[in-house]
Input
Amino acid sequence: MGQTLIETLAAVFILSMGVSAAVGLAVYAFGASGAIVKQIIATGLAREGLEAVRNMRDTNWLQDTLGVNNCYNFSTGAANKANCYANWLNKYYCVDPANNSGNSCNGAASGVSSVSYNLTFSSASSNLWVLTPQLSGAQNYGLLYDANNLANPTVTGFYNTAGGITCANGANSGGLTISDYCRKIIITKLTPSGSPYDPNTYGPGNPGPLLEVQSQVWWVDKKCPRAADFSSAPVSCKLELDTYLTNWKNF
Output
């Protein structure tokens, strides 16, 4: 009888250890898969940010007219002997960080070579992407939430930022259904000294400048507290994709 009881207890112990290990493995796998899903979504949002800015540049080409002898000619080295689309920074969209005020140039960012932007998609503006420069330090960066404003039902649309809700606010703040993702776009004008992108070298007909575009996304998860900015988010809860844009449409 005693031997049977000992065997039973041993079997129960072994079984409980096996079940505990299986449950722990399942919980870990579920958490890991959730984190991977967050990263995949964040990667898509970061890629979308880069593509939106690239599409703005391409739209400027489509809206502009070909200028004759307005750009630097790489084959001859002449400053104003190549045909090109010179207004690729500001014809329809403004992607010039030195002169950006919303989607129009010559605004509040004048003289700044690098600006952080909130990228939104506005149905109220003929379904256009909108770059809004963040100059005041309010850190109202690209808060991505569902198109569901309970306090103001007229405010709808993807990536809407009405109401001044920042990325540091919690869910359902201000009557808005907040998502777990924030995005910031940084556009920096690069003009390396002595390069074809340097206006001091080739004058107003140079093909530059070279633009660096950074798309930063951070998110909320079990181990990812809500952060006001990309820099304050944990390393495992954020990612960044970069690209460079030039006026390559040079003839």
